[in-house]
Amino acid sequence: KAGVTQTPRYLIKTRGQQVTLSCSPISGHRSVSWYQQTPGQGLQFLFEYFSETQRNKGNFPGRFSGRQFSNSRSEMNVSTLELGDSALYLCASSLLGRENQPQHFGDGTRLSIL
Amino acid sequence: GQSLEQPSEVTAVEGAIVQINCTYQTSGFYGLSWYQQHDGGAPTFLSYNGLDGLEETGRFSSFLSRSDSYGYLLLQELQMKDSASYFCAVARMADSWGKLQFGAGTQVVVTP
């Protein structure tokens, strides 16, 4: 069974630009969560999607948004990039997003803002 | 507020046993998970404790005490490949859909 696939693996952008990251979950998984990982703040929850609906949201500004398609694939978008947005963005999928279901993470997209 | 505390680093030799403690303060606690992350890699799920007690999976075991707001991950028969960061993560009843609150991580260094 294929794992969670995130593209691209690496991105370099400049301040003010926008970026779109993609995540393909494990087949059959309907819940997709996004996390930001930085050395200073650790792993922080961004949002979760299930059946094309955002069910949960973390404490990030509105510049961070996402969506989910009917095939459960998900994208996240960051607009007006800031230096502080440099991070590893991780996508995780689970069957239904329940607390006792393992989240399966992709290898992440490493975003660098110049 | 909510917080998760775990040691920043633990060093041990091959074959030894390591215990990583995790204490939490969170309202509406639902369960405690553990994840392993190698440098440059993706976090991988190790275990979940929803009820008090011990869960064993091979060389790894995890324990939870709800009354003490405390859990631990036990790594036995340490191997070099166990050198990684280990995160405890809490799920809360109020907003548990797909959301985990992670601790800062414990770097485990295994020496020959």
Structural summary, described in words:
- The complex is a heterodimer of chains A (114) and B (112).
- With 114 residues, chain A is mostly beta strands.
- Chain A is built from no helices and eleven strands.
- Chain A is globular and about 35 Å long.
- With 112 residues, chain B is an all-beta fold.
- In chain B, strands 2, 4, 5, 9, 10 and 11 form a six-stranded mixed sheet that branches. A five-stranded antiparallel sheet of chain B has the order 1-3-8-7-6, with no helix packed on it.
Tell me the β content of chain B.
over 45%
Counting DSSP E segments of at least 2 residues, the number of strands of chain B comes to 11
Low-confidence stretches of chain A: none
Helical residues, percent of chain B = under 10%
Main sheet overview of chain B: 6 strands, mixed
Global outline of chain B: globular
Main interface: chain pair and counts: A-B, 29 and 25 residues
Task: Average the pLDDT over all residues of chain B and give the rounded result.
Answer: 93
